[in-house]
Amino acid sequence: MTIWIGASSLIVAGGLTVSGLAVAQQPYPDLKGTWIGPGQFITQGKTDHWPNAGETEPIFRESSWPLVVDRQEGSRFVGSHGLTNGTLRDPVFAVIREDRRTIHMVHDDGTFNTILTGPDTMEMCRIEVTAVSRIVGCRQLTPQK
To answer: Which of 22, 27, 50, 122 has its CA 20 to 30 A from that of 130?
Structure first.
């Protein structure tokens, strides 16, 4: 009985090790191209992308912000983002975590926490705090076809 339990434990441990290696060897998703979709935001103060008419209270906003991934090497990529109808585009760079779903992204004045929610979908959430403004929001993105 002791030999059977010991052998069973080794088989289970070996199976877990092999399955862990299989996950680690999968390629990172190819995200190159333009991703677009609706977003919901709350802003307060003067921002680079939205007009400020002197409001002092937070403003609920909806807009489309494309993410363009220009170059990717493994888990790292660079690109830009900006309002669909705007001319201002901010450069971004990012790293995909080992789980191949979680993405950490930065640009000149904020961060994005992004999750790949499916093979062709991502949720990209933004937090920005400056001396004159605050922004928080999320958008649901899919590759532009």
So the answer is: 122
